[in-house]
């Protein structure tokens, strides 16, 4: 055989062997295919499509179905597989507490008016709504809004029994109701046009029957003021004075000649 042909054949065989080796190594280094990702079980939950304010009537366009992980979906949520007519069922309800966009709709925060007014619909069982006059000076400068918590103060001016001395009248002030929920300012059950304050002439408070009597009697004996409470107090359930707020003994705070003192409560 011609020597040149032998050389060419040898080079071809060598090149083929190298190519086969490289191809074999490439196959061995290829990463294995990724394992399929396990799909979490989901459920369709009814959520607020837009912000829903306190006292707002729910419309069909205010809610929508949204996919939610089943493991984190509370039993209080409205699920499509359990209540396919959920949108129709909540339409026309009144929000007794605000919803933010994307928040799941819950029956506990809705109420059916069934012909009653808004205020009667949102009042908890056993509670009463009672209104009283306020002014910017007695209503925290207009920064008290519906759903805030307030203390109610009674201020009275008592005639000085010793008129001959020329001493001024005695002014007394005491807290008569604590941690009371504000239902409305004038006729506004929510903020007006996004304002941060509502300056009104009338405030409507949520009271139990005993507190209603206390407030009604206080209106006839002096002027009332509202003191805005911190949002941290919202979880307080007792609407009575705690130990740090109770007057000492049977006295009340009295301002006499510009000096704070204790005096016997007027009978």
Automatic annotation (TrEMBL):
InterPro entries in the record: Pilus_assmbl_Flp-typ_CpaB, RcpC_dom, SAF
SMART domains: SAF
CDD domains: SAF_CpaB_FlgA_like
Top-level taxon of the source organism: Bacteria
Domain SAF: start-end pairs: 43-111
Record's protein name: Flp pilus assembly protein CpaB
Organism, as annotated: Bradyrhizobium hipponense
């Amino acid at each position: 055989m011609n020597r040149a042909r032998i050389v060419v054949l040898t080079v071809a065989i060598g090149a083929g062997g190298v190519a086969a080796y490289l191809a074999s190594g490439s196959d061995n280094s290829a990463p294995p295919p990724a394992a399929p990702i396990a799909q979490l079980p989901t459920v369709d939950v009814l959520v607020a499509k837009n912000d829903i304010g306190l006292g707002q009537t729910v419309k069909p366009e205010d809610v929508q179905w949204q996919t939610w992980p089943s493991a984190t979906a509370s039993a209080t949520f409205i699920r499509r597989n359990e209540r396919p007519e959920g949108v129709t069922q909540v339409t026309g309800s009144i929000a007794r507490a605000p919803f933010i966009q994307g928040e799941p709709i819950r029956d506990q925060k809705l109420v059916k008016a069934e012909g009653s007014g808004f205020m009667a619909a949102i009042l908890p069982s056993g509670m009463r709504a009672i209104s009283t006059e306020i002014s910017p000076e007695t209503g925290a400068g207009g920064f008290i809004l519906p759903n805030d918590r307030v203390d109610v103060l009674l201020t009275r001016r008592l005639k000085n029994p010793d008129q001959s001395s020329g001493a001024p009248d005695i002014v007394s002030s005491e807290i008569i109701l604590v941690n009371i929920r504000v239902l409305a300012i004038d006729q506004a059950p929510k903020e007006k046009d996004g304002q941060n304050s509502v300056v009104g002439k009338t405030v409507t408070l949520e009271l139990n029957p005993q507190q209603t009597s206390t407030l009604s009697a206080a209106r006839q004996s002096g002027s009332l003021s509202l003191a805005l409470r911190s949002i941290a107090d919202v979880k307080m359930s007792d609407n009575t004075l705690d130990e740090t707020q109770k007057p000492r003994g049977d006295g009340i705070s009295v301002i006499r000649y510009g000096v704070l003192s204790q005096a016997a409560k007027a009978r």
